[in-house]
Design goal:
This protein is an alpha/beta fold. The chain folds into two domains: about 10-245, 3-Layer(aba) Sandwich (Rossmann fold), CATH 3.40.50.720; about 265-300, no CATH class. Helix content is about 45%, strand content about 15%. It has an eight-stranded mixed sheet with strand order 3-2-1-4-5-6-7-8, sandwiched between helices. α2 (about 50-60) links the parallel β2 and β3 (about 65-70). The N and C termini lie far apart (about 50 Å). The structure holds 1,4-dihydronicotinamide adenine dinucleotide (NAI). 1,4-dihydronicotinamide adenine dinucleotide (NAI) binds near residues 14, 19, 152 and 200. This is SDR family NAD(P)-dependent oxidoreductase. InterPro entries: KR_dom, NAD(P)-bd_dom_sf, Peroxisomal_Beta-Oxidation, Sc_DH/Rdtase_CS, SDR_fam. Keywords: Oxidoreductase. One of its GO terms (molecular function) is oxidoreductase activity.
């Protein structure tokens, strides 16, 4: 079954280079009309020019595809709304949004300025919120939408020097969890991509040989599946160097200890059992945690 995007309109943010560029090229090659967005700044988010996005548009058009360039910063909601208007005026719909734009401001937490924390949160989290908010009513009205958030192993599992980036990337997983529930009845599927790729963002972080294996285009299949007609919903797909995995937010079976004066001590003694992954589940919604806990209490009280 081939994955095609004929008649579909996609917006890819931060698509002037790195992973976003590969996403845009691949969507266009498979028939999508693509808004190539990029602020055109450096890896820290400084400066800006639409020329990076325009170069990708030129490449798509030269290959016979359709694309338009947009230089909006995803941090500016008005500019994002104008970008969506640009897509609607050109093509009348928006089917796919790939929230990919991002920056780094790495430092250990002790040395990190709050301004660098806030900016990273703003670009990754509010950037994705702005873009998704602007396309959401259109996707609801169409009864069709595919949204991909770009999370990261740094958010899912942590990474030294990336407290700001990790917090932002985990926030995107949280955003995905709720939007996938809210979008379901409108056929809007929301998923997250955790890539590993050699881009300017990872320059100097890994040996040359490893970076070579991590070509950005190797991540693209995971995005294409999540942007496709048969996309899953509420999945975190990890991808890099041709390998693919899924990250899950699990809930262990835990224990029932009841409520008493010595519960803290008994909990401390039972931590290994509480954190034991045997029979862990992946809840379909947050309410399942409460249901599990109340269920244990009812059982203990013979209810
Ligand atoms: P990159 O730096 O090559 O690409 C990011 C793009 O976003 C740049 O073209 C930049 O100009 C654009 N951008 C930055 N701020 C923007 C804004 N306010 N508005 C619009 N565009 C803006 O880096 P890369 O690696 O391609 O990153 C793409 C995404 O993948 C990012 O969200 C990043 O956090 C994520 N990621 C990358 C990993 C990797 O191994 N390269 C690992 C995990 C996540």
């Amino acid at each position: 079954m081939s994955i095609e995007f004929k008649g579909r309109v996609a917006i890819v943010t931060g698509a002037g280079g790195g992973l976003g560029k590969q996403h845009a090229l691949a969507l266009a090659a498979r028939g999508a009309k693509v808004v190539v967005n990029d602020l055109g700044g450096d890896v820290h988010g400084v400066g800006g020019s639409v020329s990076a996005a325009q170069a990708v548009v030129d490449e798509i058009r030269a290959a016979g595809g359709e694309a338009i360039a947009n230089g909006a910063s995803v941090t500016d909601f008005e500019a994002v709304q104008n970008m969506v208007k640009q897509a609607m005026e050109a093509w009348g719909r928006v089917d796919i949004l790939v929230n990919n734009a991002g920056i780094l401001r790495d430092k250990s937490f002790a040395k990190m300025e709050l301004a660098d924390f806030k900016l990273v949160m703003d670009v990754h989290v509010m950037g994705a919120v702005h873009c998704t908010k602007a396309v959401w009513p259109i996707m609801q009205a169409q009864n069709y939408g595919r949204v991909v958030m770009t999370t990261s192993s740094s958010g899912l599992y942590g990474n030294f020097g990336q407290a700001n980036y990790g917090a932002a990337k985990m926030a995107l997983a949280g955003l995905m969890q709720t939007l996938s529930i809210e979008g379901e009845k409108h056929n809007i599927r929301v998923n997250a991509l955790a890539p590993t790729a050699a881009t300017r963002m990872t320059e100097g972080l890994m040996p040359e040989q490893v970076l070579k294996a991590l070509e950005p285009s190797a991540v693209v299949p995971a995005m294409l599946v999540m942007a496709s007609e048969d996309a899953p919903n509420r999945t975190i797909l990890c991808a890099g160097a041709g390998g693919f995995e899924a990250a899950q937010i699990t809930l262990t079976q835990g224990v029932y200890l009841g409520v008493g004066p010595d519960t803290p001590e008994r909990l401390a003694a039972a931590l290994a059992q509480v954190t034991d992954l045997t029979s862990a589940l992946v809840p379909k919604a947050g309410s399942e945690q409460g249901a599990l806990e109340v269920g244990k209490a009812m059982k203990a009280h013979g209810a």
